[in-house]
Amino acid sequence: MTARDAILARLGGSATPAAIDTEAAALLIAPERPRVDPARLEESFLAMLTLPSVAATVDRIGSPDELPGAVATYLTAQGLPPRLCVPPDPRVAAGDWSGMTLHEQVAPDENAVLAFARCGVAETGSLVFETSPTAPMLPNFLALHHIVVVPGLVAQLEDAMLGDAMPRAHYWVTGVSGTTDIEGTYVRGAHGPRFLHVILLGQLQ
Questions:
Q1: Exposure string (b/e) for 84-97, b if CB count within 10 Å is 16 or more?
Q2: Can you say how many angstroms the Cα of residue 1 is from the centroid of all Cα atoms in its chain?
Q3: Separation of alpha carbons 188 and 195, rounded Å
Q4: Looking at the chain, which terminus has fewer C-beta neighbours within 10 angstroms, N or C?
């Protein structure tokens, strides 16, 4: 029986109760909530980030003081000018950005933007953001290169849910923007950044 015949047979109601029970049991073999080893959060997170479907590059810094140098290295490697859109975040102001032009007003064709995630999720490689006066949302969707600092990790999606103090909005990013709407061909950067660069801050576990 072909796969098409099997599907049509199910739609026609010809599947036996025993076959249905067998199929249902097979679905329950794997855990519904994938297990993430708490001792290997960073390893799991990095494994997800570097999947082709997520397509992120990764760097690490030991302290916030190293952030300007890490960003400058990335921009140079990508052949980009030393110009960066940054949020009005005190962590940016604390760094020495000599030799780089910083601005807060994002342009529709912005080359690179810096952002600070609230955390990363080891289960999926997702980045969790929340909006505030020091964390505008729009720049994260307009730039070609999205450079994101990750200060900490959680194991599962549920662990990243916000507490009692809800921000105006929060959103999750998993990998670069992509679509197959155009003639069935995968196109990166169709609805947002084409490149995602994650900078891990310190030892995250």
A1: bbbbebebbeebeb
A2: 41
A3: 8
A4: N
29-47 exposure pattern, b = at least 16 Cβ within 10 A, e = fewer = eeeeeeebeeeebbebbbe
How many whole angstroms from its chain centre is CA 126? 4
**Considering Cα of 26, then 27, then 28, then 29, what sign does the dihedral take?**
positive
Sheet architecture: strand order including 153-154? 153-154, 119-121, 126-130, 170-173
**10-residue averages of pLDDT along the chain (205 residues):** 69 68 72 79 92 89 94 97 95 92 93 95 93 91 94 91 76 77 60 87 73
What pLDDT does residue 54 have?
Answer: 84
> Would you state the pLDDT for residue 70?
96
Residue 8 to residue 14: CA distance in whole angstroms: 9
Number of CB atoms found within 10 A of residue 65's CB:
11
